[in-house]
Amino acid sequence: MALLPEDIIDRLIQMERRINALSTAVNTRPPLTEITNGSLALKRQPAPEDPSTLVAQLSTSGPGGNKPVLRVNDAYGHEVLSDDILSGGLARPWLPMLPPQDLASANWPATTSTAWTTIAQSQNPLWQPKMRLRMLTRFSSGTSGQVRVMVGGVQFGSTVTAGLVFDHTDVVTTNMQADFGKDLTVEIQAIVTSTTGTVYAKPVLMYGRQT
Question: Which domain of life does this protein belong to (predicted)?
């Protein structure tokens, strides 16, 4: 067998190394950090091919097909987070912000009734299973009374003596799958327990929370 020049042997060895390196690179999946003109779906096991298991979706389907769209669903298919593809920011959930409150208690919701009376009410879409409500209460001179909160017709937290701060966090639904997105009615009720006088209440903080 004729001897091959040494440089040919060296080249064959280098070629073998490169082929091995290429084979390793082909069979090794690099970290996925960028997707161009495509979509990404995150699914949970054990049925990754079942559409109902979709957890999050990121796709290029905005105006002109060049803006990413973010949708996050919970395990039951509810859209719990999405972005506004037209202007940016959040599309869902809608996050209400409390306007500045009047600190003069004479202008607060109030009652002079000696029976439980609803003095303030609001309705909010139900996005989360828990809620926190913080409320200031006052009473006129020589008066005694109480304040309570009703959520969906059920008392939320404890009854407080007028003059104290109401601050309570608790579950507002035990069936999130059925109540998701429905209006939640929140009522502030007060009662005068003395002969005469006025009881006042003013909510200053309310937001939903996770379990």
Answer: Bacteria
CA gap 188, 120 in Å, rounded: 5
Pick from 161, 164, 163, 182: which is nearest to 173 by CA?
Answer: 182
Handedness of CA 26, 29, 30, 35 (dihedral sign): positive
Query: How high is the pLDDT of residue 187?
Result: 98
What is each CA distance from 47 to 42, 43, 50, 172, in whole angstroms?
12, 8, 5, 32
Q: How confident is the model at residue 67 (pLDDT cuts 50, 70, 90)?
A: low
| Amino acid found at 140 | S
Per-residue pLDDT for 24 more than 70?
yes
Rounded Cα distance, 95 and 124, in Å:
10
Confidence of residue 16 (pLDDT cuts 50, 70, 90): confident
Pairwise CA distance, residues 104 & 153, whole Å: 29
Residue 51: phi and psi, rounded to 5, are -55, -25
- How is residue 104 written in tokens? 């003069």
Q: Give the single-character DSSP code of 162.
A: B
Tallying the residues shown for the chain, one arrives at 211
Residue 53, pLDDT > 70, answer no
For the chain, domains (ranges, CATH) are: 39-92 (no CATH), 105-209 (2.60.120.260)
Answer with the residue of higher pLDDT: 148 or 14: 148
